[in-house]
Each structure stands twice: as C-alpha cells, then as structure tokens.
Amino acid sequence: MAAEAGVLELPFTCDEQLTRRMRLRFQSLQQKNARPQDGERLLHPNEHIYRVDFIQQHKLRFLRWDVQLDRPGKVTVTGTSQHWTPDLTHLMNRQLLEPVGIFWKKLGAKEVECNEVDAQEFGERIAELAQIRKVMYFLLTFTGGLEPAQLKGSIVFKA
C-alpha cells in the first residue's frame, strides 16, 4: 500500500491457478481435436491472468499506473468484464474491455512508457467497475521477451 494519506495502491497479482485452468482448457480442446466455442478467447503461452483485489470499492478516483519492467519489452493489460468462478474458465472475446493499457520499456531506457490517454481512460473505467466488484481480472500479454517475473505493477487511486 502507498504511504501517502488518502492514497490506495492495489497490486496486480498473478492468478496462477486460473491461468493454469485456462491453459488446461486449451490443451483439452487440442487433445479432443475440438474447436472452441464461437467467440471463445483461448489463452496463448505469452498471456497470463492477473487480478486486483479491491480492499475499498467506493469513492476511488484513479490517479496513476505504477508499472515497472525489469527489462525491455511490452505488456498489454486488458480488463475483463467476466465474473469468474472456480469452475468457469471460458473467456469470451466480448468480455474483453477497451481501451487497454499498453506499457513498454525501450532498450537503454530507465522509465516505462505508455499511451497516456488510453491508460487514463482505462484507469478511470477500473475505478467505476470497483464500485460493483471486490475483484477484477485482467489478461496480461507479454511480448518482446518480457515475462511475468519481470513485471511489478499496481493501480494507484485517491481514496
């Protein structure tokens, strides 16, 4: 949590169990030589499911993203409208929210960059969704050789 008064920093947490379950869905379809449902979004090897747990849901105002990358590469953060339960792992394309947050670090750069307009709009939308959710799930796509262990990220709100 952030040390500043009235500031709430909520970290992205990799949901290993849900990611694994969604990968099993993909493997199951391959083994059965079956096709996914119409509109179903299968998890690619460079994609992982993360979650943000809202310890406070109301009166949140988005302040900023705090994304740190240990090496050059890009991570795309896509919010979902899905309310997952342990036995439901089907992610449909229509459940993916826009805009997405795209964060990247160039070779030799110290700071992580992003498309600030989309990141701001995305953060504001998350603050709105927090009013009706205790948990929100995100699909993170890693490219450019970046891996989950090289990411530290959170969303910072004024509480």
TrEMBL record:
InterPro entries found in the cross-reference section: Olfactory_marker (IPR009103), Olfactory_marker_sf (IPR036727)
Biological process, per Gene Ontology: sensory perception of smell; signal transduction
Ranges that cross the membrane: none
Gene3D superfamilies registered for this protein in UniProt: Olfactory marker
Pfam families to which the protein is assigned, alphabetical: Olfactory_mark
SUPFAM superfamilies, per database record: Olfactory marker protein
Protein name stated in the entry: OMP protein
Provenance organism: Oxylabes madagascariensis (white-throated Oxylabes)
